[in-house]
Amino acid sequence: MKKCIVLANGKPPKKNVVTFFKKRGFDNLICADGGANSAMNMNLIPDIILGDLDSISTKALHKYKSISKIIEIKRQTDTDVEKCLKYAIKNKFDEVLLTGATGSRLDHTFCNLGIVLKFFSQINISLVAEDSFLKPIKGNVKLRSFAGEIISLYGFDKKTRITSSGLRYPLKNISLPFGEKESTSNVATKNIVELKIKNGTAFVIRDLNTMIKNDLF
């Protein structure tokens, strides 16, 4: 499996989170433009820095110009995060972890959540934001868990139907259309939570530190 981390120019993850995922096979670091500034602050060396290069600092550019591959793509019809994901797909990465994709600007956060949906059919993608781990899911999915783990589920439209087993508040072929209904802070009751997603995609959000502590990846 070929895996990579994409570090965007939002609020960066903690360095120990990057280190954790690198040890789990995400050994390629791709920085989306100004994400290289965060990499520099964490003393990380990107394999690739990619984007229109309008956000990377002069200091970071100077530091990495001889040790990282820097790819300037000037087009403005997609974001730097999208450029990185397209690069990962073109270069046959199997899985990508998106980090630094949220922050003080709600429009950027909303955009990047949409990008997760947009690219999910092309590459196995997850997102880490502060203490949360987000995974888009479809079809039949089994999650390793434990009794008491908080698991939240979100859908997007009325045609997508969700059925669950192993949750305190069961979902029985119901839709969770955005802005109407959600399953926030549901609770696992078993070591395996089974989900069936029909006609669409849902987001599962879990506590990152809990998953790391209990080896739930």
Description:
- By secondary structure, the protein is an alpha/beta fold.
- The protein folds into two domains: 3-130, Rossmann fold; 135-213, Sandwich (Jelly Rolls), CATH 2.60.120.
- Helix content is 25%, strand content 34%.
- It has six helices and eleven strands.
- The chain has helices at residues 15-23, 35-41, 58-64, 80-90, 106-119, 208-213, and strands at residues 3-7, 28-32, 48-51, 69-72, 95-99, 124-129, 132-144, 150-154, 161-165, 183-187, 192-207.
- Strands 1, 2, 3, 4, 5, 6, 7, 8, 9, 10 and 11 form an eleven-stranded mixed β-sheet that branches.
- Strand 3 (48-51), helix 3 and strand 4 form a beta-alpha-beta unit.
- The chain is globular and about 55 Å long.
- The model has no long low-confidence stretch (mean pLDDT 96).
Kindly list the characteristics that best describe this protein.
single chain, globular, Jelly Rolls, 11-stranded mixed β-sheet, 217 residues, 2 domains
Secondary structure elements and pairings:
Layout: E1 3-7, H1 15-23, E2 28-32, H2 35-41, E3 48-51, H3 58-64, E4 69-72, H4 80-90, E5 95-99, H5 106-119, E6 124-129, E7 132-144, E8 150-154, E9 161-165, E10 183-187, E11 192-207, H6 208-213
Parallel strand pairs: 1-2, 1-5, 2-3, 3-4, 5-6
Antiparallel strand pairs: 6-7, 7-11, 8-10, 8-11, 9-11
In summary, what is this structure?
By secondary structure, this protein is α/β, with parallel strands linked by helices. Helices cover 25% and strands 34% of the residues.
